[in-house]
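From the pipeline queue, job 12 of 40. The input is one protein chain; the requested action is below.

Action: predict structure.
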Amino acid sequence: MAKVVYDRSEMIGRFWGLLIALVLPLLWLSLLQTGLTTAQVSQGDELPAASQSLLIESRLRSEFEQATALPFLVYLRAKADLAQPPLPAVPTSRRAEVMRRLQQTAAESQAPLLAALAGLQAKGQVSGYRPFWIVNAIAVTGTEESLRRLAAHPGVGWITSDTPRQFLPTQERPLTASVTDDAWGLPRIGAPYVWHGLGIDGAGVTVAIVDTGVDWLHPALNSNYRGNRGGGI
């Protein structure tokens, strides 16, 4: 009986050939499953729970520990391309084209999310929502469950708290000047807080009167009335 003898190099070659034969199908199967998963997400399936958590602002998650429903802002991933094709050079046409692209992007990207919101509202998980096209976002008031469902949508990029911001001084802040009884309406509309909080008091503003006329001899107007200053000003 003949005896088969293999040298060292031939044995190494046979080993690697066997290894490749075993590993390559497994690698191919893994890539195929990854591709299917990506395709499913792109078609609207929910994102993994870990990804959902990263999309929600930490402060908003904390606020939901003390509330059953809150207002929040849902920002979408899609952004209008304002570079290509180039915008028109004429200002009016340029502005119109920018607005058209922003509105089109918002309409297309928000459509699936608005449909989902309508369903959540029918279930009582969302009490209201309002879309915005300039920033491509949707203001929502809903439960924590609705928050998680929206965060799972592949078109959502970021969700933040939608809480009021106080830009003017609070009513408790003392004023640096008093308002007389003759101007009773000014305090009621918060005018003093604009004067002393923002430093806006109307100085340098020209007011035009298009009516039956003005009493330019009134002490409050006479010294600043342009018709009384001469020089055609």
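Job complete. The two ends are 124 Å apart (CA to CA).
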